[in-house]
Amino acid sequence: MALNNKASYEKALRSIRLKRLLSDNAILVIWVVFFAASLLFVEGFASAYNIKNYLSNCAPLLVVAAGLTIVTLNGGIDFSTTSVISLVSTITAYILVKTALADTIWAIIVAFLVGLGIGALVGVINGLAISGLKMPSFVATLATKLVFSGVAVWFGSVFYEKVSLPGLPAGFTAIGGKGNPNYWFIPLLIALFVFVLIEWLLSKTVFGRRVYAVGVNPRTSQISGIPVRRTIFFEFLLCGLLAGLAGLMYTGKNRAGITTLGDDMFVNIVGSVVIGGTSPAGGFGSMRKTLYGVLFLTLLSTILNLLGIPYTLYDVIKGVFVLIAAGLELVTRRMNIRAAAKAAKMG
Asked: Which CATH class is domain 25-345?
């Protein structure tokens, strides 16, 4: 009798763990199904060129989504990431093509430093406005988005002949996987480094524990001695820096400075975070989940492109998936809570 009870207990426990594993990785399972189906049924998807292109599209999106993940875990939002991408693209292309440094290694070095500096500057402004002035992140980052998007368009209208500035050197475009067929893996290495770094920050450091704590309950965190304002400030600083890095990668990938480069990217950025399973309410999620979201959303764009779906419908379809994912995230969280409670009762 005791053996039967023990076997039943172990079977029930395995069932609970399996359900929890599947619910916690639901978007990964869906991605595997979509990817396998695409290999079999979507013409051109299985080609080496397309797979490389798919992976290179994932890389800069993962970098900028990593920054937004940190902010979202705090229950915040950062609309300014797209304006950072546009401004970085506009300014760095000008440095590389139209200044006295053009065609020198110094132009590339200065362009990288300026690109990261722009991201850091916007992050600092957002961080001070939200942590210091206690402005809602929605308001503060929407304001900086409008300001810096406007600056990018103004700068291009004054110093560009068109909305884009081509002719970037191969030494720079390598960051986007362009300039040489053998450069395609470079953005993947950058994205991998960012993924490992942010995953480590969130899961293995005091800063990561503070991010989750503040996301769950900032008032309780403050009472517990956690420096809430400082934590929020560094979250937005990191988000700005990563948006700046992504702007450099996107500019290299397009081999041109584009004044409106980031304008249509916000659905992809926030969609990757939310579809992956990071809660917009804060306190729940991870870089691993954002990686799942990036893989899936980029796969969806690739499939739509290969099937010849009109580009005007892309955001409609992605929006539907974001809505479904938000609902799935709520269901998943409740399932995990119930599974944890049931497992605790069983000992």
From this structure: mainly alpha
